[in-house]
Amino acid sequence: QKELLLTLKGKENVTKSGQKINLYANIGNVSDLAAVLKNDAGGIGLFRSEFLYLEKDTFPTEEEQFVAYKQVAETMAGKKVIIRTLDIGADKQVDYFNLDKEDNPAMGYRAIRICLTQPEIFKTQLRALFRASNYGNIAIMYPMIISVDEVRKIKAISEEVKEELTKEGIPFGNVEQGIMIETPAAAVMSDELAKEVDFFSIGTNDLTQYTLAIDRQNAKLDSFYNPHHEAVLRLIQMTVENAHKAGIWAGICGELGADTTLTQRFLEMGVDELSVSPGCVLPVRKAIRDAE
Ligand code: PEP
Ligand code: MG
């Protein structure tokens, strides 16, 4: 089995009938890059940038972030690298953020909500990302979106950052900006959201949690946490359809993307990209090539 998978390195992600799909990898640290290359992923579909914040006892500087993002961009040598802006809060607590204890952290002050409330933290990360975009093919992705209004606020801030960099004579590339679809609100509003962004990436871990009202961290509920629930699959389908109507692409970066029992179904839905943990790239490639 393992040898069979190795023969799939360098092969296309194409079905028997010629349908192609992008197959990228999810990473959470610069040190995961070796596994991305070894498993022949076509790019990075989700780089969880939290590690930069979690491994320190104070805010990472713009320069520290820039160095890390640049390294990823250069290592991937022109392949797409989708970096998610910070998703701190809920299960990922960092002392120096001084977040209050909350009764419902998963539904609380986290991710983009922190970034829009404390734009100086957000702008530092965006400056580092745009600067690093000069060294490769970086795209930026925003987590936990629920509304068009949020996206417009984000775009205003990223425009400000670009203007500042331009004024300072600092170069940056052409950066695709997309959002994660991981709340039912975002999936339901995906027709409107699609007009505002360059791509969607569906976060099925949180989308399942919020759609089914089941805490993804509560082991007692494991038997109820069912990402195959038809409600979740319908939201995925709807999101992909609305993306295509607006002429943008839609991928899946939650764990469900690696579920080979659903590969055929995702292809039928017209999903454009799957981003999976590095070790799942070749098994998913096999499932794609075995699909009709
Ligand atoms: C998700 O929610 O599906 C996702 C990819 O993000 P995370 O697992 O980091 O919350
Ligand atoms: Mg998530």
UniProtKB/TrEMBL annotation:
The keyword Ion transport does not apply. Its main location: cytoplasm. It is found in: Cytoplasm. Residues 8-291 form the PEP-utilising enzyme C-terminal domain. Its EC number is 2.7.3.9. The keyword Coiled coil applies. One of its GO terms (molecular function) is phosphoenolpyruvate-protein phosphotransferase activity. Keywords: Coiled coil, Cytoplasm, Kinase, Magnesium, Metal-binding, Phosphotransferase system, Sugar transport, Transferase, Transport. Its cofactor is Mg(2+). It catalyses: L-histidyl-[protein] + phosphoenolpyruvate = N(pros)-phospho-L-histidyl-[protein] + pyruvate. Belongs to the PEP-utilizing enzyme family. This is Phosphoenolpyruvate-protein phosphotransferase. The gene is ptsP. The chain holds residues 246 to 537 of 537 of the full protein.
